[in-house]
Amino acid sequence: MASDRIDSEEALIDEFLAPLAAGFPGAFGLADDCAVIAPGAGEELVVTTDAVVAGVHFFADEDPGAIAWKALAVNVSDLIAKGAAPLAYVMTLALPEAPERGWFTAFSNGLRRAQEAFGCTLAGGDTDRTPNELSVSITAFGTIPAGAIVRRSCARPGDHVYVSGTIGDATLGLKQRRDASLGLR
């Protein structure tokens, strides 16, 4: 019986990741070891990085599309908090085994939806095997008008603070997932 696993990095890139980089000229179709990310005239590049790891930031059996969305969203959130517009990202995937085609289809579809929602594109990265849990590490790049960065140290009494979503939802969801007897909805 033929395996439904993706056994080579080349197949993973060609079938799933290169389409996510389409339209970003500096990604070179993910056929090079580096990407070129150039901010526009009068802009600065803002950079952030975060990883999400199975067993720490998500459950290993979670929907792959949701894992991908979260991995990109935590990075884009940092860019937006600094006043930057998302531009591109690079991603490193450490996979515990060759991924099943269905799993990676859902993962790449989740990334595509996140890219479309956040207005950024995959520019490069790396895939590798790990003896540990799945890890997705993203470094995201955004642009901002020169000198316009919003820094923590610049906050002053009287400034407005905006929150998107409901504070505590993630913690509540985690508690429910760990203990279904709580009956939370």
Helix content: 25-40%
- Within CATH, the superfamily carries the name PurM-like, N-terminal domain
Instruction: Estimate the global geometry from the Cα principal axes.
Output: flat
Rounded to the nearest angstrom, the radius of gyration is: 18 Å
Mean of all residue-level pLDDT scores: 90
Question: What is the succession of H and E elements?
Answer: HEHEHEEH
Strand order of the largest sheet: 1-4-2-3
- Per DSSP E runs of 2 or more residues, the count of β-strands stands at 4
Query: What is the C-level CATH assignment?
Result: Alpha Beta
Low-confidence regions: none
Structural class: alpha+beta
Number of domains: 1
Number of helices in the DSSP assignment: 4
CATH architecture classification name: 2-Layer Sandwich
The proportion of strand residues reads 15-25%
Distance between the termini: 42 Å
The CATH topology assignment is 60s Ribosomal Protein L30, Chain: A
Characteristic key phrases:
185 residues, alpha+beta, 60s Ribosomal Protein L30, Chain: A, 4-stranded mixed β-sheet, 4 helices, 32% helix, flat, thiamine-phosphate kinase activity, PurM-like N-terminal domain-containing protein, PurM-like_N
